[in-house]
Each structure stands twice: as C-alpha cells, then as structure tokens.
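Quarterly update, task 2.4: flavin-adenine dinucleotide-bound model.
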Amino acid sequence: MKRYSAFAVAREALRYHSGWERAWASPEPKPHYDVIIVGAGGHGLATAYYLGKNFGITNVAVIEKGWLGGGNTGRNTTIIRSNYLQDPSAAIYEKARSLYEDMSQDLNYNVMFSPRGVIMLAQTEHEVRGYKRTAHANMLQGVTTEWINPQRVKELVPIINLEGPRYPVLGGLWQARGGTARHDAVAWGYARACSAMGMDIIQKCEVTGVRTEAGRVVGVDTTKGAIDCDKLGMVVAGNCSDLSQMAGFRLPVESVALQALVSEPIKPCMDVVVMANTVHGYMSQSDKGEMVIGGGTDGFNNYTQRGSFHHIEETVRALNETFPMVSRLKMLRQWGGIVDVTGDRSPIISSTPVKNCFVNCGWGTGGFKAIPGSGWAMAQLMATGHSYLAEEFTMTRFKEGKFIDESVAAGVAH
Amino acid sequence: MLILECPYCGVKAEETELQAGGEAHLKRFGPGSSDDDFHDYLFMRENPKGVHFERWRHVNGCGKWFHAARCTVTLEVFGTYTAQTSTPPQALLDAISEKRPGWTWREFADASTSHNGEEVAD
Ligand SMILES: Cc1cc2nc3c(=O)[nH]c(=O)nc-3n(C[C@H](O)[C@H](O)[C@H](O)COP(=O)(O)OP(=O)(O)OC[C@H]3O[C@@H](n4cnc5c(N)ncnc54)[C@H](O)[C@@H]3O)c2cc1C
Ligand SMILES: [Zn+2]
C-alpha cells in the first residue's frame, strides 16, 4: 500500500496522477479462512481491522452481498457523540469517539472527523430533567458533557428560534467533542487498511447459508460457492434475523426503515450538530453546504431500504418551528436504510448458541458513531472469547432482565 | 405509500390514517409461564424477510384494530382481516401460497428452541 501524504499529492500532480493505486484489492474467495466476517459495513470492516491490528489475525475474509459501505454505513447522518446514559453504553461509545479522533492518522485515510460539537435540545420539562440526569451520569463516566442554558444555545446556533410556540428551547445537553465524520471514508479507510494487511474483501457475494457441524460453525455458503472458516462474525445490521436463522438461532431484533434527506447546498449557517428529540428531527451542515436532516423510523417491518414519504414530511415540519429557515430550503434527495432495533435500543455484541459464531447487530438508528469501538470489542471477543466492552451486550440479557435501556435517554434516531 | 383496506369500515386507508401495531397473533405469556416463553413473548419477533402478519389500527378513521398480511421485501399487501381471530383466514393463506410457493410461517420459530441462554459458548 502506498501511503497518502502531501508529498504523494505533489508527486502525482507532476505526473498526471498516473501513480495512484486501487485502494483495496478485489480477490476471488479462497477455500478457507481463519475468520469470515459477513457484512462489509463499518462494523464488519472495523472488526476485521482490529483482528489484524490488535491480534495479528489476518487470514480473514469480509464478505459483502453488495458493495462495501452500501448498507447503513453509507446512508446515515454521521452524528458522533457518546453522551449516553448507561455505563456500558458510555464506555463503548466513548471508546469509539476517542478512536475517531485519530482515525485519519491511524488508517492513513482522511475520514474528515469534525468534532464540531453536538447539542441535544431540551424542549419539554421532561427533557430538561432527563438531560441533566445524563450530564450527571456522564460526569461519573468520565464523558465530558455539559448542561447549557437557552442563551448559550442561541450563541452556538444563531439560526435557532428559542421561543416555540409549541416547543420552546429550554436548554440543551452539549458535547463539545462530538461531531461528524465522512461515513463512506470510514468504510473505505478500514477496507484499504484491511486489504493492505492481506485480508480479502469480497464484494457482490451474498451469504446464503451457514454450515455447522456438531453445534460448531465450519463455513458459509455463498453465491460464489462454499467457503470454510474457523470462526464466523455476522455483522449485517438489518439482515441479522435472516443470517441468524441460517445459523439456526433467533435474535430479539426487528428491521425497520430509517430515512434521511439533504437540502440544496447553502452558505455556512450552522457549525454544530443539533438534535431535537421531542419533535423527532436532527440537523447538521455538510462541508458541501447541504443541510443534512434525519428523523424517526417508520412503524413497520421493512427490508426495502425505502421509507414512507409522510415521515420525511413530518420531520421537516417539526424542524420548521425550531429552525424557521428550513421552510425556505429545497430538499435535494432522500433515502432510507434498514435498521436493526432491539427491545432496549442497545446493540448486541455476543457469542451465540453456535460455537465460534459471533454476532454484532442491533445498532439500530445510532451505530455509525460506534463503529471503531464496536470493531475493537468484536475483534477482542472473537479473538479471545471475552471483551470488557462487550460484556453487557449479550443476546441473553433480555431473558436475564439486564437491559441497557437507552430508549429513554435517546428516544429518537440519531 | 402503503394502502390498507379497513375490514370494518371498508375504507382504503393510506398510511397517515393508520398506526402500525407490530406482529400479529402473538401468544401471550405471563406470570406462571416458563422464562423462555415469557422472554419470547416479550422480545422475540418473526422479523421475516417476506410474508408478515401484522396488527394495524385505523386510528384516524373508525379507530378499530385489524390484521394485515404484507410482504416486507416488496411491500405487497396480500389482504386485511378482522381482529376477531387468532389465525389468518385459510383463504388468505391459500392466496399467499399461490403467490409465494413454498413460503412458511413461524415454522422456524416453532421448531427452534429459543433457549439461547443455556448453551451459549463463551
Ligand atoms: C438514515 C439513517 C441515519 C442514521 N444516522 C445515524 C447517525 O447520525 N449517527 C449514528 O451513529 N448512526 C446513524 N445511523 C445508524 C448507522 O448507520 C448504523 O447503525 C451503522 O451504519 C450500522 O453499520 P453496520 O456495519 O452494522 O451495518 P451496514 O452498514 O448496514 O452493513 C451491513 C452489511 O451487511 C451486508 N449484508 C447483509 N446481508 C448479507 C448477506 N446475506 N451476505 C453478505 N452481506 C450481507 C449488507 O449489504 C451491508 O453492506 C443511521 C442510519 C440510517 C439508516
Ligand atoms: Zn376503519
């Protein structure tokens, strides 16, 4: 792998850019790998990367039915924050956020991490209490957040309308070190680094079956034939119920559509991320100038990567009150992804009833921010059988009543 | 846009008139049942890639709950029926079989022990 640098840009500028290499190889599958990861989204690729980097396991294939990063990883609104309520969540999301800080250097790939700050608006008395509680919890967890008053919100977001009338802004939970990153680049950066370690990223190859012998996984069937493995990681987000059935077990997950949209590009007007959870909308401005907007999930099971139009309408309508200028924006395009939602709105990073088969799913509406932390934990779990970060996120926690309840704290897609 | 015909008032209602109510025909388990049954009732759902039976409420219409059979991959609606039944009507099942030969419903769930807890490898 040739490293990217200012020097490389200058060198290529002098020779008509003829020296750039392909970022990753596209090999045909080998008959056997030590580890197969299903799903080349951020979480799958990060798992492979840390298997190589932290544990020296590089005989790895990442198998993807479409193109890498084409699932939710390339469809989200890229918000990164770690101001969760419960301790296990704070631990893994803060680990992820801190890994984002030097990801560009680590991967030698510019992921455009922009720690511009994230505000979660409190627009009801309920939310005021909720966010103050979260701020206190964050203090104990070592996550830097702060409760701010409406005047401070207005300073940070001049385009905001504090007065309501329905939902006045009563304050906000501010995480100065949260922000955004370029989602495609995260997938591409990990893919390039994995490929450089000798791992095979196999795109346009769908896993159609999981082969087990005596309760232990031995390989997968794919549209490019059978491939053997010693260990299997399923990291397929909205398709996890399908994959787990192939392996012979069920997951407490439902798949629903979540949508986002962007406006026409406009001049810089908002340099932080704002989430308005009561009215179900959140917004940031991309480097291109588009306002990036997301809302809530659709109400029914769906595998089509398309959502209902009226949800888009609802989201924009809700934002109009708090951001009156939104009513003058033309929206350019809208899209959807299929998100995997669990009963307590927390993910599953877990061993399974099938030996040597592991699952990482349930990130639902909020897993982009978690990609590096999740990959870190999943790699550790797959390599050693244990991960301190994943310990609480088992698939059996529902039966034990050990929920990691983030539905109250988040309440909205993000 | 999803359009479902309310079996009570006969209105072809579009989505904004309706509220989704999740998977249909769940068997309820409560105090006295086994942990596994209770867990499955509370947290396990079919989440099929294909034919799904659901509860819907005609919330901005007659207000009644009803059932719908829908495909989660194509969003095709196979039909709707009243809430006063614990299984889908045979005529509807036959119609689905014609369109989706070989489809199954809850076969896997019924066969699989959901005792995910016990044999988990560490
Ligand atoms: C509209 C929207 C907005 C969002 N906004 C945010 C946000 O602001 N902040 C945030 O933190 N999170 C956000 N999220 C959530 C976040 O995008 C996801 O949690 C995260 O990207 C999940 O990554 P993943 O790698 O698990 O899944 P994915 O990126 O979906 O990757 C899974 C991959 O598995 C592949 N696959 C599936 N089945 C098979 C098979 N049988 N064989 C081979 N491959 C298979 C798929 O093709 C896919 O590429 C948002 C999501 C959406 C949809
Ligand atoms: Zn009706």
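Highlight for this quarter: The pocket of zinc ion (ligand 2) is lined by residues B 6, 8-9, 11, 58, 61-62, 64 (CB under 6 Å).
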